[in-house]
Structures are given as C-alpha cells and as structure tokens.
Design goal:
Blueprint (H helix, E strand, L loop, with lengths): L13 H26 L5 E5 H6 L10 E6 L11 H9 L3 E3 L2 E4 L2 E7 L3 H8 L2 E5 L2 E5 L2 H11 L2 H13 L4 H10 L3 H8 L5
Parallel strand pairs: 2-5
Antiparallel strand pairs: 1-2, 3-4, 4-5, 6-7
Helix pairs in contact: 4-5, 5-6, 5-7
C-alpha cells in the first residue's frame, strides 16, 4: 500500500532490501570464517570493532568495511606477520583488495591487536547474537576508549554520538580510561575541548 506524503525511503525498495540481505549474508559468512580461523588455530581470538561494532550498541553509522581486531598465535620473531593468515585465506579462495580480504563481497580488514587497549578489548569481547549465530564484538566501553585513543576527528565525532546513544557502564569505562591513560581525552570530549 502506497501512502501519500511520505518520503521516498519510507517505501520498501526491493533492490535495497536485496542489498541488505546480501550484506547480512556476507557478514554471516565473515563471522563463520573468523570462527573457523580461531577453531583451526590461525587466530587466537577476534572481536568485531569499528563502525560495525558500534551498530550493535547505537544507531547505524556509514561504514565501508568490517574491522576484525585479531590476536595472532605467538610468532618466532619480533615482528607481527599476517602472512600465515593471508596464506590461509587465499587457500580458502578469498581475494585480497588492498588491506582487505573480500568475503562474499564484504571487505574485511584483519587488524592485529596493536596495543594493550586493543588486546584487552579482544580478550573481553562480548558475545552478541547475529541472526542464528553469535559474534564476538568489542564492548561499548572498549569501543569508546579505542575511539578516544585513535583521536581522529571522525572518531571524536563518533565518540560524542556514541556516548549519547549507547548504553555504557560509566564505572567500567572510567576504569578502562584510567588503566590506559585516556582520562584526559574523555574529559576533553565531555567538556567539548580538543584533546
């Protein structure tokens, strides 16, 4: 039934619905691959981060890719190498596109835990439902801290929106901020000052 005086987006668009279904299927497939990589020991653990993680807690944000923070098995050298992971993914038939691996058309960026905060975020990821499966997602408190630590203008803007929309445990947030030396960035954000 068509209703008059409604904006164009009000009406279900079959192509848009089809794209949404395809994107959800790509996301489901990416989760399946992440779980498989943990199961076979290629990864120690993962947690969805970035814009996709934010959509589990707040209004959706425009995002191009799926950020997967990962803990890799110990290596023999000092440098972190993604070669074993990328070799495994190539062997599974997935193509690389710059810093991403395409999983069902969804660009997935595998980001090794690059500091103590991100490592802690992966270790304390929250299992959340996605369709008929479960996905490990960075907690809202850790996600907010990562936004503040990264400090890019877009992250500060997202953080400001996120604290208004997401249910954040302020006590837990303050513990994480303190542990990682980010209280000053939190104060600057909440007082509307540059960090």
């Amino acid at each position: 039934m068509v209703m008059e005086n409604q904006p164009e987006a009000w009406y279900p668009d079959k192509r848009a619905l089809s794209r949404k279904t395809a994107r959800e299927e790509s996301m489901r497939r990416a989760i399946e691959i992440l779980e498989q990589l943990v199961g076979d020991g290629t990864l120690k653990a993962y947690a969805i981060g970035g814009g996709v993680a934010a959509t589990f807690y707040a209004e959706p944000v425009l995002t191009y890719d799926l950020d997967a923070f990962v803990l890799l098995p110990p290596s023999s050298g000092l440098l972190v190498s993604l070669s074993p992971l990328y070799d495994k993914l190539r062997g599974m038939g997935f193509a690389e596109d710059q810093e991403h691996v395409l999983v069902g058309g969804l660009p997935v960026q595998f980001i090794p835990a690059y500091n103590a905060l991100v490592e802690e975020a992966v270790e304390n990821a929250v299992p959340l439902p996605f369709g008929d499966t479960t996905v490990r997602v960075v907690s809202p408190e850790h996600l907010l801290c990562i936004m503040l630590q990264t400090g890019r203008p877009k992250d500060r803007a997202r953080a400001a929106l996120f604290i208004e929309e997401a249910e954040v445990d302020r006590g837990r947030l303050m513990e994480i901020l303190s542990r990682h030396g980010l209280v000053h960035r939190w104060t600057a954000l909440t007082e509307g000052r540059p960090a």
